[in-house]
Specification:
With about 300 residues, this protein is α/β, with parallel strands linked by helices. Helices cover about 30% and strands about 15% of the residues. It has helices at about 15-30, 50-60, 85-90, 105-110, 160-165, 180-190, 205-215, 245-250, 255-265; strands at about 5, 35, 95-100, 135-140, 145-150, 155-160, 170, 195-200, 220-225, 230, 295. Strands 2-1-8-9 form a four-stranded parallel β-sheet, with helices on one face. Helix 3 (about 85-90) packs across helix 6 (about 180-190) and helix 6 packs across helix 7.
């Protein structure tokens, strides 16, 4: 099954990113499938070309390769989302949408959503934008009904998107295309059959499955692997102080040691194995060995916070 990894060039890759990339690569290579590298640089304010180059160098340092991508080309390009905006506009024409003038803060206040939880859009502009003088976002008139899918790692999941999320944004008021639409269009265009990503993105899956159906696309298979957390239990990020891949690469760390730690944290090898190359893991890759729970950097020895 054709697979992909799709980093955003908005920061350096950390160990959690590397773990997802490794598993996505193994899932494809273990089935003799093509692997695609796509750069998700939708947001021009945050994306940087030098970070893209750094990320690709880090992934190659780990021992990963890809058959198609922004640096190698391929039959399904372009492989940067910033170069694919015409495809998103064409897809939008096939959906029933409406303009919305509500800011994120207004939606949160109107929906009475507590901090940290995604608000359910209350339908404020469904009949027409309340403030047409403002820049307008584009929302989808989300179909009613329950979406059910079976995830390779997390099992069976169901969600009523219209009830639990509401009519969600496909293009922001600043003109930037939303992640939900862009990845669906790109996965279809690039013939991606299996999406491997972190479990923090599983809430997007029902929305994307609905878009696939509405646009007449094939439905991809999903595998949401457990995220890596810092010592405080929250999703790993730079504030935790863990080394990023570029720092390790430039410091001369043996990438085989990093791959071994990542593979052990995912249950793919014994914890006593200290050095391994990705290609050595292909033959023994098994989804059944990957636990659905998140994993702590400290608990699996990926990072000693005292060091």
């Amino acid at each position: 099954m054709r697979g992909r990894y799709a980093p955003s060039p908005t920061g350096r890759l950390h160990l959690g990113n590397a773990r997802t990339a490794l598993i996505a690569w193994l899932a494809a290579r273990s089935r003799g499938a093509s692997f695609v590298m796509r750069v998700e640089d939708l947001d021009p304010q945050r994306s940087r070309g030098e970070l893209e180059a750094e990320q690709l160098a880090d992934l190659r340092w780990l021992g990963l390769d890809w058959d198609e991508g922004p640096d190698v080309g391929g039959p399904h390009g372009p492989y940067r989302q910033s170069e694919r905006v015409e495809a998103y506009a064409a897809a939008l024409e096939g959906l029933e949408v409406f303009p919305c003038s509500c800011s994120r803060r207004e939606v949160r206040e109107l929906a009475l959503a507590p901090h940290g939880r995604e608000p359910i859009y209350p339908g404020t502009c469904r009949a027409g934008p309340r403030r047409p003088d403002r820049p307008l976002a584009i929302r989808w008139r989300t179909p009613a009904g329950v979406v059910t899918f079976v995830d390779r790692v997390q099992g069976c999941r169901s969600e009523n998107v219209r009830r639990d999320v509401g009519e969600f944004v496909l293009r922001r008021a600043d003109g930037v295309w939303a992640y939900q639409l862009a990845v669906v269009v790109d996965d279809q265009a690039m013939a991606i059959e299996q999406v491997v990503r972190g479990s923090d993105l599983i809430e997007s899956t029902a929305r994307q499955r609905l878009l696939q159906r509405a646009l007449g696309y094939r439905e991809t298979e999903y595998a949401h692997i457990p995220i890596v957390t810092g010592p405080d239990g929250s999703k790993l990020n730079k504030r935790h102080g863990a080394p990023d891949l570029s720092t390790m690469r430039l410091a001369g760390v043996d990438p085989r040691r990093v791959v071994a730690m990542l593979a052990a944290s995912a249950g793919l090898i014994d914890a006593g194995q200290t050095h391994v190359q990705p290609r050595e893991l292909v033959g023994g890759f098994d989804w059944g060995r990957i636990p659905p729970q998140s994993v702590s950097l400290v608990d699996v020895g990926l990072w000693n916070k005292e060091a």
